[in-house]
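Good day; I would like, with your permission, to put a structural problem before you. I would ask you to consider whether the tokens describe a fold that such a sequence might reasonably adopt. The full record is reproduced below for your convenience:
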Amino acid sequence: MVVLLGLVLVSSCNNTNSIAEKPEIRIYIAWPGYQALPYYNWSELALKPNGPEPELIEEILTLKGYTYYFVADYPYRDAGDPRIESLTDNGADVSIRAISITPSRSALVDFSKAYYVDGLAAIVKDESDIKSIKELDGKRIFVYSYSLAYSWVRENLPNAILITEIDANVNPWTLQDQGLADAYINDKISLLTIANSNPQFRILKEQLTQDSLGIAVRKGNLELLADINDAIDEMMANSRLEEILSGYYNK
């Protein structure tokens, strides 16, 4: 009995160590002092961001027994996509910020199953004569160079004048207020947030794409990826995922 008890104790200790061995997870979303509504807002003096995507990734990792922190000092190089490069540079383990799952991105990082489906749309000044997407061809359009909007415009509006450079502290839709752009193309849920708060803007009726959003995971971390997918399944089944997102992603 003493021997058996010893084996039980050793086994119990080994199980405890196994649970405790889960690494601390580094989450990239952005930097303090920045926001991209409705996805996140990170106040300059706050230790972490708030919003649906921070809340989602925190709950997923907590559910699966991970500790974590938000990376606040990843060096942005004014080019490329920091949501992906933070992982390929080994500056973070997971990244979440309205990242559409695409073949080119999937070659660089692993993606969770989709937690939301959105798509591209365009926003213009309400006083603009532009009524349809086809009327944007030949117009000045702001898009982020690393976004799906950039490649979509190049392929579908070949005569459009692409604007991709902007001060980090300037909201891109305000370029239209300054007469520097005619439209802004981005995820529809983001544009709805803008239009709801800025009645001088309206969203064109056509939705340009349908894109699945996923959590990006540093390539090869299969255990973490499996845990995230398992948590997403669980949160879908008990409606917790919808509960987190619905307070922000109201269409």
Observations:
- The first helix runs from residue 2 to 20.
- Residues 1-18 have pLDDT under 50 and may be disordered.
- Residues 11 and 38 are 47 Å apart (CA to CA).
- The domain at 120-203 is CATH 3.40.190.10 (D-Maltodextrin-Binding Protein; domain 2).
